[in-house]
Amino acid sequence: MHVASRAIECAPSAFALPALPGAEILAFNVAHVSKFTLDTPSFIPSLAFEAPEDGLSFCNISVTYTHPGQQDTINTQIWLPDAWNERFMGNGGGGWVAGYFDPALAWAVSQGYSAGSTDGGHAATTPASEWGLLSPGNINLYALQDLASLSLNDMALLGKILSSAYYGKSPDYAYWKGCSQGGRQGMMMAQRYPDAYQGILAEAPAFNWNTFIPSAYWPQTIMNKLNVYPQACELNAFTAAAIQACDALDGVIDGIISLPSLCRFDPFTLVGQNFSCDGSAKIFSNEAAMVVNGTWTGPTTEDGKSIWPGLTHDSSLLAHSNTTCVANGTCTGLPFIVSADWIQYFLKKNASFELTSLTPDQFPEIVDASIDQFQSIIGTENPNLSGFRNAGGKLLTFHGIADEYIPYPGTAWYHDRVEARDAGVDKYFRHFEAPGVAHCYGGIGAYPSNALHSLIDWVENGNPPNVLKAEASQARQDGKIWERDLCLYPTISVYQGGDPAISSSYKCV
User: Is 189:196 a contact under the CB 8 Å cutoff?
Assistant: First the structure.
């Protein structure tokens, strides 16, 4: 693919105001940017890049618009590089953030993509408390819809229209890239707007939203009922003990539980034993074991039926079961903010609702309400991908097994549901699991930083990935960067012997 240059000047007068269906443009600003550098490096490994010495040069188009009658204001940025690879890249966000602007757009431009990002109708720094409710008891449904789906398609349309105008030709290919909320957004595009992108990379997607988001609050309900909030050091000690017990199940001791379904470690076996907390000896409590067991098991009904899976034993407990403590040792719960917001503002619809009043016996009705009220808005679990398949799209997902925020089985279960409808699913949707990788990135497992290249090769050259090449983000104690191929689901990577730091020592089974 050759590199294209601009066909018109980067000036407001050179562009016709884009026609965006159902929207009214409020502001349209165009400015050429040169010598651009990021003030701070991206915290996401896959967005790291080395900027040229003279910085990045691109045309920055900022579009502010509204959907008349919906009282929303959405800001979208489209960056158009001076040297274009003839591809468009849509970029996702995380948590309540619809899109990361500078880090994601700068990476995409550095690779030659024209690229887009949107705020979904609220700034990244605006908490849900400021936009979730119109008034007590009344949800801002249009704002939620903007975040969930509408602004994402608007951004894709704007990106393609403005790319075509600037370069004198339409993008040859359009790709989506995002993790967590960004992964959910990618899945939404495949399901609801199947013609928008030829390739979608959805990492650790938060697309089982209506079930997993409230489920993330489950450990806090256990603590509320017990009125016991364990210190972080005790929770970390449970995790360390579980890893020690289950690490070798796959035949190699690497600090990773690669076969979590075989890990039967019982946290109650530690009760009464000593552990170290900041150099002081403490004793594992039965109440802390109950919290840990509930986090690993996941939420259940009163009769013990599973509502959603829990976290794996090598996932950090500090995402869902976290606490905060003052100097005198008194601790309180510190829940995952998106989960807490979802329950308080969207399910209870009450900014004054006391979250600590929630106990496990109330939990099933919380999840039922989430599904009943919001499946059509932000639910992204429709297994019918026939529109995306028929449009020639390719969907690539991977999920870290040690994900501390989103239990990894949810993505595999979705793949199973798609496959139940279409036995030929691997022709357009491929999923991979990453042992030891935390949420989106991090952890000590091997991370597939080149997954996007595998997707592009699949879309443009017809080469579907059977493995994703991956490597750890840092050297281990032996000084080696460990490598490990991620296997096409449902196969898993199993150690076969030899040097555990090289990928040839593992086999997809």
Answer: yes
Cα separations (Å) of 382 from 379, 417, 421? 8, 9, 11
Collect all residues with Cβ–Cβ distance below 8 Å to 453 and sequence separation of at least 6. Answer: none
From first to last of its 509 residues, the chain has per-residue pLDDT tens of: 567 778 889 999 999 999 999 999 999 999 999 999 887 655 666 666 677 778 899 999 999 999 999 999 999 999 999 999 999 999 999 999 999 999 899 999 999 999 999 999 999 899 999 999 999 999 999 999 999 999 999 999 999 999 999 999 999 999 999 999 999 999 999 999 999 999 999 999 999 999 999 999 999 999 999 999 999 999 999 999 999 999 999 999 999 999 999 999 999 999 999 999 988 999 999 999 999 999 999 999 988 999 999 999 999 999 999 999 998 889 999 999 999 999 999 999 999 999 999 989 999 999 999 999 999 999 999 999 999 999 999 999 999 999 999 999 999 999 999 999 999 999 999 999 999 999 999 999 999 999 999 999 999 999 999 999 999 977 776 778 899 999 999 999 999 999 999 999 999 99
Catalytic residue among 46, 110, 151, 180: 180
Tell me the Ramachandran region of residue 163: left when phi exceeds 0, alpha when psi lies from -120 to 50, beta otherwise.
alpha
Give the number of other Cβ atoms within 10 Å of residue 449's Cβ: 17
Catalytic member of 72, 250, 403, 485? 403
Of the candidates 104, 103, 115, 128, the one whose C-alpha atom is nearest the C-alpha of residue 38 is 103
Q: What is the pTM of this model?
A: 0.96
493 is catalytic: no
Coil, strand or helix at 494: strand
What does DSSP say about strands 74-81 and 114-118: parallel, antiparallel, or unpaired? antiparallel
Q: Is 247 a catalytic residue?
A: no
Q: Which of 72, 439, 493, 503 is catalytic?
A: 439
End-to-end CA distance of the chain: 36
Query: Is omega for the bond preceding 490 within 30 degrees of 0, making it cis?
Result: yes
The runs of H, that is alpha helices, within 174-329 are: 181-192, 209-215, 218-226, 232-246, 286-297
Clarify whether 180 is annotated catalytic: yes
| Contact of 402 with 435, CB cutoff 8 Å | yes
